[in-house]
């Protein structure tokens, strides 16, 4: 039996051929090493992210999330729900808090869920993968399987918004959370703790609808990483990862910059440190390749 | 003013604060604002001249009954959902949610600005994700590029071609999603439960305006 088991909510961006498929790949590898068994919630649906509110409204949004909870309770009883995506986690947890706080909203939600033959009892807890790592394992335990050090690589830990606010990781501050830096140090990398854009917003969904505004924010995030001497940026959020990585070319054109910095997930660093191959760590999924990590992964 | 909008205003004797409290998600918090402005100083888009009225100004305008100005405003649509205002507000107002709630209310009443890009994208996103139960990133992007017609769509698409090619090469964008997309098995159930949820929400809002 696996050391820990969870009901897994991977989210839309992690699907095969989607924008964060490399995140999922590395999470799978990382969990294999740590003996974590993630069982996908059968037939899970979209959380409607942080942009679904305008058309979706209140109750439909909660009903979408509650469907996943009900499916988890029914198929994976007693298991906590774990999300890897910041927006999935936030959306789901928000719904759970609102439903817990209002019997009316809970009753309305269940009235709607009945149409899909489901019922939500309010049992499951919603957690982020980072919470699982830090709270259920802890840095000492996570360090044990490290076989390769990422020594000499300087990382700017970009936490972003939604894994940090409004819920965040217990014991961390909203203004300067340290967990990502600690994870970097745990795998032997150098954490640039003075990186001042750590919790700046990348623009989120406005990267699509208001690209100029979002790219102005992304420019600051990348520029500060360079200013602090970073070779790579590391993040826990799929939208942060995509926004900060894929628009660097557009920002270069617009602002006359020469940005070309890899943007990684914590799970990719851990997979490489645990001895995984470049493929295991999803390094082939980078738009801006992380050559130094690929070299370490290739070393026997 | 649209019919729906004038009805709603009349139900509350043109007391806009009362209307917001009853009809807007988390709107009952608005009166708690003490005008300190920390939300505005914490907002990433406020620094880019994005807001015609920053959050604390919106709250005061609600109390002052400036209904049209608030609901016609671009302001709420500038929210990136970064939640900085929420965690810093000394009175713990759920400002992000109030902004979303106001945007949703303005959208529903038909008072939100026409061609507001985030309004358009939000609608596109919701319809995209509920169609199969999961987001189709390819159709979402294409829908966004082609919002101003075919010709502009090609121009927008070409402007983004480097981003798309990078993602294609990294296998993070799948052109076949256009034909055979990811999706939930029980799409019928999802559509039925969402229809019901909309009905219930309409019913609840109707009781409040009755």
Automatic annotation (TrEMBL), chain A:
Coiled coil: none annotated. The keyword Oxidoreductase applies. GO terms for molecular function: oxidoreductase activity. InterPro entries: Cys_rich_dom (IPR004017), HdrB/HdrD_reductase (IPR051278). Gene3D superfamilies: 1.20.1050.140, 3.40.50.11810. Keywords: Oxidoreductase. Pfam families: CCG. Residues 6-88, 158-244 form the Cysteine-rich domain. Transmembrane segments: none annotated. This is CoB--CoM heterodisulfide reductase subunit B. It comes from Sulfuriferula multivorans.
Automatic annotation (TrEMBL), chain B:
It comes from the Bacteria. The keyword Nucleus does not apply. The keyword Cell membrane does not apply. GO terms for cellular component: plasma membrane. InterPro entries: 4Fe4S_Fe-S-bd, 4Fe4S_Fe_S_CS, HdrC_iron-sulfur_subunit, Helical_ferredxn. It holds the Pfam family Fer4_8. Keywords: Iron, Iron-sulfur, Metal-binding. Coiled coil: none annotated. One of its GO terms (molecular function) is iron-sulfur cluster binding. Residues 23-54 form the 4Fe-4S ferredoxin-type domain. PANTHER family: HETERODISULFIDE REDUCTASE RELATED PROTEIN, IRON-SULFUR-BINDING OXIDOREDUCTASE FADF-RELATED-RELATED. This is CoB--CoM heterodisulfide reductase subunit C. It comes from Sulfuriferula multivorans.
């Amino acid at each position: 039996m696996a050391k820990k088991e969870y009901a897994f909510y991977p989210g839309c961006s992690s699907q095969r051929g989607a924008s964060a498929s490399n995140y999922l790949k590395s999470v799978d590898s990382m969990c294999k090493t740590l003996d974590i068994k993630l069982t996908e919630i059968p037939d899970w649906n979209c959380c409607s992210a942080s942009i679904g509110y305008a058309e979706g409204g209140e109750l439909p949004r909660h009903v979408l999330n509650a469907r996943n909870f009900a499916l988890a309770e029914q198929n994976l009883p007693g298991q906590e729900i774990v999300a890897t995506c910041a927006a999935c986690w936030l959306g789901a947890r928000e719904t759970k808090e609102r439903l817990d706080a209002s019997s009316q909203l809970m009753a309305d939600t269940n009235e709607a869920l009945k149409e899909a033959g489901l019922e939500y009892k309010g049992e499951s807890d919603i957690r982020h993968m980072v919470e699982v790592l830090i709270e259920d394992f802890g840095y000492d335990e996570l360090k044990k399987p490290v076989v390769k050090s990422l020594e000499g690589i300087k990382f700017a830990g970009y936490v972003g918004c939604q894994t940090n606010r409004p819920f965040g990781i217990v014991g961390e501050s909203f203004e300067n959370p340290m967990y990502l830096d600690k994870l970097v140090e745990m795998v032997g990398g150098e954490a640039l703790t003075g990186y001042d854009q750590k919790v700046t917003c990348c623009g989120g969904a406005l990267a699509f609808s208001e690209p100029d505004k979002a790219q102005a924010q992304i420019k600051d995030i990348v520029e500060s990483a360079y200013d602090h001497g970073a070779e790579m940026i590391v993040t826990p959020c799929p939208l942060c990862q995509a926004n900060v990585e894929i628009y660097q070319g557009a920002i270069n054109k617009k602002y006359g910059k020469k940005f070309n910095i890899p943007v990684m997930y914590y799970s990719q660093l851990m997979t490489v440190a645990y001895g995984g191959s470049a493929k295991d760590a999803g390094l082939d999924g980078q738009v801006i390749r992380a050559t130094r990590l690929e070299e370490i992964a290739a070393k026997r | 003013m649209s019919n729906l909008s004038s009805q709603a205003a009349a139900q509350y004797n043109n007391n806009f604060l009362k209307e917001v409290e009853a009809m807007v998600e988390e709107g009952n918090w608005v009166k708690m604002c003490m005008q300190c402005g920390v939300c505005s100083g914490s907002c990433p888009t406020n620094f880019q001249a994005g807001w015609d009225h920053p959050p604390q100004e919106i709250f005061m305008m609600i109390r002052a009954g400036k209904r049209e100005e608030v609901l016609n405003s671009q302001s709420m649509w500038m929210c990136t959902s970064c939640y900085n205002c929420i965690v810093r507000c000394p009175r713990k107002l759920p400002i992000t949610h109030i902004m979303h709630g106001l945007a949703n209310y303005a959208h529903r009443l038909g008072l939100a600005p026409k061609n507001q890009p985030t309004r358009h994208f939000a609608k596109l996103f919701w319809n995209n994700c509920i169609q199969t139960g999961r987001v189709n990133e390819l159709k979402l992007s294409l829908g966004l590029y082609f919002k101003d017609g075919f010709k502009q769509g090609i121009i927008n698409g070409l402007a983004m071609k480097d981003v798309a090619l990078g993602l294609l090469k990294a296998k993070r964008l799948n052109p076949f999603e256009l034909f055979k997309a990811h999706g939930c098995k029980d799409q019928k159930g999802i559509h039925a439960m969402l229809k019901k949820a909309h009905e219930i929400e309409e019913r609840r809002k109707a009781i409040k305006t009755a």
